[in-house]
Amino acid sequence: MSFKKPISLLLCVVFFGLSSCKLEDDRVNFRFVPLQILSADLPESFELNETYEIRVTYLRPSACIFFEGFDITKEGVTTRNVVAIGSDFYEEVCTLATEELEASFNFICLYDEPYLFRFWTGEDENGNQQYLEVEVPVN
Known about the structure:
Layout: H1 4-19, E1 31-35, E2 37-41, E3 51-60, E4 65-75, E5 79-88, E6 99-108, E7 115-123, E8 129-136
Parallel strand pairs: 5-7
Antiparallel strand pairs: 1-5, 2-3, 3-6, 4-5, 7-8
């Protein structure tokens, strides 16, 4: 007895069944946006191979924007660019009331050189990126 025909038939049914499925609304109604960082709380110094919680205060510009996390990029050995990321549900009707909120991330000190953190604070009137820079020495 051959199992090839029943398995082939089952695979065809599954394939055609799944390919005919369609979500009711396949429109994307949100986008990711950077959130302005107002302040950051870092220790005065780091110890090598230790983990630190870094607290950030950011601005939520409307009730339709929700905090998603941080985009932290490495520039050089010990420079870190930090951007708070939000999801903006732009098709919703929301209040524009701004709100200051806090979030944090964990950081592990891996190098014995001072770290430079650059927290994104927005853009100036010419569209240039602005940063709050904090240098933390390593003991």
